[in-house]
Each structure stands twice: as C-alpha cells, then as structure tokens.
Amino acid sequence: AWRKYSAAGFSNKEEFEKELVRHIETTLARSLYNCDESAAYSGTALAFRDRLIIDWNKTQQRQTFNDQKRVYYLSLEFLMGRALDNAMLNVGQKEAARDGLRDLGFRIEDIISQEHDAALGNGGLGRLAACLLDSLATLNYPAWGYGLRYRYGIFKQEIVNGYQMEIPDYWLDNNPWEFPRHEITVDIQFYGCVRKYQDENGRIVHSWEDGEIVQAVAYDVPIPGYGTKTTNNLRLWSSKASSGEFDFQKFNAGDYESAVADQQSAETISAVLYPNDNLERGKELRLKQQYFWCAASLYDIVRRFKKTKRAWSEFPDQVAIQLNDTHPTLAIVELQRILIDIEGLEWDEAWVIVTKTFGYTNHTVLPEALEKWSVLLMQNLLPRHLQIIYDVNLFFLQSVEKRFPNDRNMLARVSVIEETHPKMVRMAHLAIIGSHKVNGVAELHSDLIKATIFKDFVEIYGPDRFTNVTNGITPRRWLHQANPKLSALIAEKLGGYEFLTDLTLLDKLEAFVDDKAFREDWARIKSANKLLLARYIKDTTGFDVNPNALFDVQVKRIHEYKRQQLNIFGVIHRYLSIKAMSADERKKVVPRVSIFGGKAAPGYWMAKTVIHLINNVASVVNKDPEIGDLLKVIFIEDYNVSKAEIICPASDISEHISTAGTEASGTSNMKFVLNGGLIIGTCDGANIEITREIGEQNIFLFGTLAEDVEDLRHRHFYSDFQLDAQLERVFNAIKEDMFGDAADFAALTASIEEHGDYYLVSDDFNSYVTTHEMVDETFQNKEKWLAKSITSVARMGFFSTDRVINEYADSIWNVEPLEVKD
Ligand code: 26W
Q: How far apart are CA 640 and CA 556, in angstroms?
C-alpha cells in the first residue's frame, strides 16, 4: 500500500533506466559503451539518491514546520555498511533497478557489491546506532544522528602468514551518499584560559578566552525509512583549519609551512576512528574528537531551538539527546556552559534543563572500558569545562552528604573525581548525574549495572532513574536485505511483507511448522545460503567446504571475554578426537565447518594471538588427508557489515559464548536466530531473553552462571587451580608444536593455567564440549532441527529495533512520530 507514496523520481523500469543513463552520461560524463560495473554502481546510486533527496527535503520541511520535539542520537560510531541495497528496498524500487540493470547487461548483485562499506564503527555499539536510525525513520520519528566523519573507518584486516595486519580504510572517494554542507560550519575552541570578572550588572561572568579554533563542517547522510517518505538526517562533522585571520597572518608573513602544518593538525581531529572496542586508552586526540563533535552538535541543536523563539525552560520539551555510551558525556557539560556562560541563565535553572534533556545508555560493564580522563589533560584542553565539572560534582556531593551524612566512603565512591594520582574524571558518573534516565541494553546487563558499578547511584537517586531497553536489530537489513529468499517465503505464508514493520507477526509462522512443503522450502533456502557462503569461502580462501556439513560460526570482535579461544580449543579437541578414531567411528562423525571472523584491536596482543592460533589450526586441519570433510576451519578475513549479510543467513549454529556477565547484550545472536540458525551460548546478555522468547528446548545453553563467576575467580587464586583434563590434552598438542611454534601461544595457555583463568575457559570447557556433542546429535535429526529453526524465527518478534525505538520514545524521550505526506 505504501508504494502509492513513491510518486517522485521513477516508479518503473523505464523511468529508472532513463535516470541511470542520464547520470552515467552527464553526471559521470561516461559513455554507455564503456560503462563498467563501477560506473553502473555510481549511476544507480545517483538515481536512488535523487529519490531520497526529494523525500529528505520534504521530511526536514515538515519537521521544521510542525515544530515538535526531536530526538538527537549522539554516537561516536555509526557502522552503516552499504547504502544502495538498503535505499532500493526502502523506497521499494529494487525490482525496477534489477530489470533496468539487466537491460544494460549487469547483474544487480554485482553492482551492489561495488560499494565500499561505510565502516565508521568498531562493532556492536556502532551497528546498534545504525539499526536504531533505520527504525527511527521507518517509524516516522523526527530524529537526527550526530557523529564524526572519519576519513579512515575501522581498518581493513589482512591475514598474512596467520597474523593480522591492519590496512587503513580510506573510504571517501566517490561516496554519493554524503552531502557536504560547506555553509554549515561551527568554530570549536580548545585550550586557552578562563577569565572571571563582574559585568556591569554585578554578575560574575566566566569567559573562555584565547586558545585555538578548529572549524567543524557538516556532512549530511540521508537515512530513508522503509515504506515511508520519512528520510531523516545523519550529520557527520569533519574538522578543518579555521579560515580566521590567524592563518592568513601566517601566510602573509611568509610562514607558509607552519600555516600548512596548523591546517594538518586541525584536520587530524576527524581523521581516524579509534579501533579499540571495550578498551579505554586515554589519548588526548580522542578527547579532542569527543569535544569537537559534542560542541558542534550542541551548537547546531541550540541554534535550531533558538529559531523557535521559545523560553529556555521549554528546551527539554523540544529536544531529547541520547548519549550512546559515555563517549558524548561532554555534551552535558557543554550545554550547561552554553546556558550559564553564554545565555546568562542561573546555574540551577540551567541544570534542570540539562538533566531533563539527556539520557545515557551504558553498553559495557568491563572496568577497562569505563572512560576516565586525566584532570590535567582536561584542564589544559577544556579549562572552563573542568570548572563546570567541579561545580557539578560539588553540588552533587553536597546533596549526597545531606542524604547520607558522614558516609565518607560513599562520597569517595560516587565522586566524579577519582582521587588517584593522577586525578581522573569519571565520565560514567558525570553521565548519570547529568541525565534523567540511564539504561542498560539487556535485562541481565541492566540488573548488573544496578548491582555493581552504579549501585550507589541507585541508592542516591532511587531505582526510577535506571531502566532497561533490550537491544534489537532492524529486520529490513538483517532479514529482508540479507536473506531475500527467506523473506519472500515468509511473505508468501503470511500474505505480505507487513512482518517487516511489525515483526511480532512472525508468530503466525508457527502454524506451518508441520507443513511438509513449507519445511522443504525452508531447508532449501538454508542450503542455498550455505552454498553462497561456501562459494565465497572458496573464492577468498581457496578452501573447499562441504555445503552439507554443519556450519558453525563465530563472527564478532576478537576479545578474551567473548572467548574465541574457548571455541578454537574446542575445535582442536574435536580434531584430536577424530584423529584418535577408527575408520568405523569416523563414519558416525557429523561433518563440520568451523567459521571464524573478526578484528582484534591493533594493540591487543592476546586477541591477535587467538587469531594466529585459529589460522594455524586451519592450515593444519584443512590439509590433513585423514580428516577430509569431517572438519574444516575457516578464518574469514576483514569481517564487516556486508560480509555479515552473507554469513548470517548461512549458519546452522552460531556461537555466543562470553563469560557470563560480560557481554552487555550481543546483537549478532539475534541476527543469526532471525535467519533460521540455532545458537550455542552462555547465560549472558540477550541470550537469556532470546531463550525466554524462543524456548529453552530451541537453544544450546551451557556454562557457569553470572552469579557464580566471582566465586570461581576467587577460588582460582586461593585454592589449587585444576586445568580441565580434556583442555589439558588440547594444551599438550599445542605445546608439542602441532600448530606451529608453541612459544607463539605460550601467553595464551598461561593466561588460563598460570594466571587465574579470569574468563573461566577451563571451568566451562567440559560443558562446552558436551553441548557441542548434543548439537551434532540434534543436527542428524533433520526434521527436529528444522522444527527448532522455524519455531525460533516465529518467536523472534521481540528483537526488532522498532520495538526498541518505541520503548525509548515512551519511557525516555517522550516524543511522538510525525508522518510525512506529499
Ligand atoms: C572507550 C573505548 C570503548 C569503545 C567502545 C569502550 C566501549 C566501547 C563500546 C561501548 C563497546 C561495545 O560495542 N559494546 C557493545 O554494545 C552492544 C550494543 O549495545 C552490545 O550488544 C554488546 O554486548 C556490547 O559489547
């Protein structure tokens, strides 16, 4: 029904072709006779871009005119992946494009894969931001994303001799999806000093003076909703040397080199995405990035508000700002600064506005990921902000002291300033104090933050400031786009594609679990998707994998807490077991392909060691003639969003095996189940809610529970550590150089045997191996497996980011949707 809205631009093959040819011949100045795939991609993208611009302008006009509350999602990461396929599906003209491209001699899939991923993120947090934007637009919420326009996204990973190498990801050439807004610039100040004086009315004024100015330039990216005209805006800031007198003076004085150097240093701010996931390193440039982006975004938001000529007290009725983790916490301080230093509000009046405006989402409990900035660094870079932070802290601690008199330990624990040497600013504390709502991203995670890192704050503010919003994924990209065959089969059974915007409709599929023809179709689609992945593996690694084998996948950032080491040790155990079998016993083995993918942070040595081990095991196992099809180990290079779109539909089982209590939510678990894969996992993050929704008979759970983790860690240190016997056999094989020089892996085995096994690999090894035996057994019963697969998909309705956005809108933002009409 929504197709009637696609009036502008083209609505059939002929009209699309006309637009495509026009762009190829004029915009690109290419002749149709030497049009290659790259030109066909650009022409197609430009044709769809025109469509988006029309809707985008309408959306912005309507939102400005209607003048209601807007949401601003501040995130240092937006892991968008490719835009063309998404644009075609969201405006509903993919078939016109497919036919038109075919007329010119192209396969649409080849054209789509010309596009470079927009990889402005590390992993889960950045991809969540991208899924939320898709849902915000689809549900017609007036919403903007604000981020940084990194010149280099997450590095490209190459595996050389089993080692990870990092290659810079320069992605901006010929990017048709961004619009430079050279007229929208903001001057951002750094360093300098604060002058305090009394103005003519006797008011104390703080003036931040001198220092350096860097310019922020806006680049806008249209975010189309699915089946709606709403096309929201993602505004990314790029840094540029300020074109103020300062530079010209240098140029005029003949100091050309130094002027160019200044320009270089300004442009460094938005040059590169920090590639750490869940590890805070305290680098000054990262703090500069954070302030640069927060200040530019707030200037923009405040400017938009001021045009409405409302009283400041109405700011929170017009503006909701969501902080994606603590990375944008300086926005809280910046808004307070604008209100008191520039707009002249009283402190208390301003602070009420600030706290009503902000919400803070926490994405991790790992202590090494909690952001802290040295007070000295902050004082040097942002002198006025540090003063405001001290004042915020003073008033906060005074109020705590009143409620909990003489509890000095409490004051020390909750203070924004950690009194260590050097002193540190605790960003999470600042984020909690400056927000009206704090949320975790899965039930267990939200409970854990209330019971551990934020316990004191629950006592101080009461439980109402803390809430849970369980993560989700957008079914448009992760089902319809990634798995068109499954999406079409579901649509056929359900009588249309409404489930893509109301995922709970999937529950109607349960009625067909026993339908024989449907089951066959379901199985055939999984096989076809596995075949596509097998072909991809062949093309990229040279290895042949048996498409009938059980595909066992673990793709995510490499991190000790996610326990890829547990997986590869399990693979080695399997290999050793097969080697020890008789020929008859081997006949009963369920053939398996163990597929890994993921990047390690460049400085994370242990994670790189795990990648090295996986690759070495692969090269031994894959060419062992005794093993043949029974076991293959594959490491997929440079895992990213577009590769996830190939991998997720092709898994039989995927692994979500973090040490209980460490994975805040996980979202790939949802992607795999939604695509008909089963999962093996620990009782951690959203695995728990997935289990509740799909039923515990449909998931393979194993391992220590979160509540038992602390005791076990303690025991590892204070009583004798006993390495699991089967794991010992695995370690012995490694130590006998079976997978290359044992010395390369000594630190990895030692972290378990000698240094306390913090992630409980040995404790969980036995139940992990036993559970995999159950996986094999279940997989042999094709009908049982299929029933689990279908039932699980039918029960995944809860995990759409549409539900997530509605929860944020109701319980945190208090915003209403606004439909965009012709
Ligand atoms: C400062 C270094 C740094 C960088 C990134 C610290 C922390 C992060 C992110 C918060 C890490 C992250 O991506 N967290 C993931 O967020 C997902 C979305 O909520 C969750 O599904 C994952 O469980 C969580 O690890």
A: 9
